[in-house]
Amino acid sequence: MSALLEVRGVRKRFGGVEALAGCSFRVEEGSITSLIGPNGSGKTTLFNAVTGFATPDEGDVELRGEKIQQLSPDRIYAKGLGRTFQQVRVFPRLSVLENVLVATSHSSVAQGLRTRTGASERERAMEILEYVNIARLAGVPAGSLSFGQKKLLEIATILVGEPKLLLLDEPAGGVNPTMTQQIGDKIRELNARGITFLVVEHNMEFVMGISHRVVVMARGKVIAEGPPDVVRRDPAVLEAYLGA
Ligand SMILES: Nc1ncnc2c1ncn2[C@@H]1O[C@H](COP(=O)(O)OP(=O)(O)OP(=O)(O)O)[C@@H](O)[C@H]1O
Ligand SMILES: [Mg+2]
Question: Which end of the chain has less Cβ packing within 10 Å, N or C?
Fold first, then answer.
């Protein structure tokens, strides 16, 4: 396997806080990799640094060997790197379908696809909603969805851009067990279709269930990585959580 994403020596400081203190790891193409760590260990900051929402003070972020840390979020998205946010972002007053259509109209990837397939924007949007099991809610304002359904909608809007790598920030956070299961199944299914995942999540059962590899952060650095069953027994990991 080869690295789809490589993070090398990334540092990011906010005033007196070193949120990322020389963070390095790789995400293998085709994998579901999880990024775990205590609150404040730098996981969201790392996502921001990888997706262009924050520029690293030092270090490199490479997508298939190409340095992307100076690119804008739009440019990075266009290269096939999609993300969701810890605080879900949907347009609450627009319908579920309209939320996906807005994403379509902003995605040059989706526009290219449309010319190729000849499918209308609306049909394509409905297909994606069906795929994430919320097509029955197409006409409903996005603001009235449950938290888990909003997370599925956010994933749907990102699938419009046909990402190669999808970064999910706490996809199961605040979501009920049934919906958590559904989101896990969807991740596995999309992975089988060729999408690589980097998932930040505190729900350990969820992480251990879906991940091929787990990367553990503490205080802005990677302190352990490996297969889930090895990482969960690593004394350094237990200490990082107990110490937090
Ligand atoms: N924009 C910012 N300005 C100042 N400090 C920040 C900023 N963003 C993050 N931090 C700080 O950087 C550190 C890492 O935060 P980050 O949100 O990346 O952690 P996290 O691992 O995602 O935590 P959680 O699991 O709670 O979501 C924290 O100390 C946080 O307070
Ligand atoms: Mg976070």
Answer: N
pLDDT category of residue 104 using cuts at 50, 70 and 90? confident
Domain 3-243 part of CATH 3.40.50.300:
yes
Residue 62 or 124, more confident: 62
3-class DSSP string for 169-196: ECCCCCCCHHHHHHHHHHHHHHHHCCCE
Indicate if ligand 1 lies below 6 Å from the C-beta of 48. no
Domain boundaries defined on the chain: 3-243
Question: Where residue 112 falls among pLDDT bands split at 50, 70, 90?
Answer: low
Asked if residue 38 has its Cβ within 6 Å of ligand 1, the reply is no
CA neighbor of 109 nearest in space, from 75, 86, 143, 141: 75
pLDDT at 119 over 70: no
Any ligand 1 atom below 6 A from CB of 14: yes
Instruction: Name the closest-CA residue to atom 11, ligand 1.
Output: 19
| Contact 19 CB / ligand 1 (< 6 Å) | yes
Q: What separation in Å is there between the alpha carbon of 200 and the centre of ligand 2?
A: 8
pLDDT band for position 2 (cuts 50, 70, 90): confident
* pLDDT tier for residue 161 given thresholds of 50, 70 and 90: confident
| pTM of the full structure | 0.92
Question: Which residue's alpha carbon is nearest to atom 31 within ligand 1?
Answer: 40
- Contact criterion met (CB below 8 Å) for 119 and 162: no
